[in-house]
Amino acid sequence: MKIIRNIFIFLLIVNASLLIIGYFLPSEYTVSRQVTIQRGSSDIFQYAKLVKNQFNYNVWWRLDTNQVTTYSGDDGTIGFKAAWTSELESVGSGEQEIMGIQENEQLDFRLHFQKPFESNATSSMEFKTIDSLSTQVTWHIDGEMVYPYNALLLFMSMEDVMGSDLQSGLNNLKMILELKP
Fold first, then answer.
1. Contact (CB, 8 A) for 81 and 99
2. DSSP 3-state helix, strand, coil percentages of the chain (rounded to 5)?
């Protein structure tokens, strides 16, 4: 019985410590990746601004091919929304909305995750012309892990968790557009 009591006290102290530490930790995170695509920025921009094209390159949209996806608005315009619902907990449900468009330069998105937990993030894709046939594409995600979940940032890096998926998405985009006639 004494062992169980000591284990309980230990777990209580660990949890209380994490809650206290989490109170003082930052909650924001930023993850960015980039790739150079051998194609003009206008071609890349016109492809990337269509959210429905993300099914072809975005790793997260491809996690559940059975997810239910609904759309509202005109794809490629400010206010267009794509909402998803999946039975897979790793995919959950939420929506993505186009918030800003700077033609051939930048796309801005708002992400609202509803399940498996409530969260908001912003995402942007920047298109920088290197020369007439080369464009650097940078994909950013900025989000927040609210208290007390921000304590998890002690044990995991959002760069590690999300960075490889961003890079895979960019590499997929590169492959698609460099092979496209």
1. no
2. 35, 35, 30
**What residues form DSSP beta bridges with 93?**
85, 115
Q: What is the pLDDT of residues 111-161, one digit of tens each?
A: 998 887 778 889 999 999 999 899 999 999 998 776 666 666 666 666 777
Question: What is the C-alpha to C-alpha distance for residues 161 and 92, in angstroms, rounded to an integer?
Answer: 17
Q: Could you tell me which of 54, 51, 27 has the C-alpha nearest to residue 143?
A: 27
DSSP letter at 148 equals: T
Q: Cα–Cα distance between 67 and 119 in angstroms, integer? A: 19
* pTM for the full predicted model: 0.81
Question: Cα(113)–Cα(81) distance, rounded to whole angstroms?
Answer: 13
Nearest CA to 133 among 89, 177, 100?
Answer: 177
The strand order across the sheet containing 93-102 reads 28-37, 134-144, 119-131, 106-115, 93-102, 81-85, 68-72
Domains of the chain by start residue, with CATH: 27-179 (3.30.530.20)
Model confidence pLDDT, tens digit, residues 131-142: 989 999 999 999
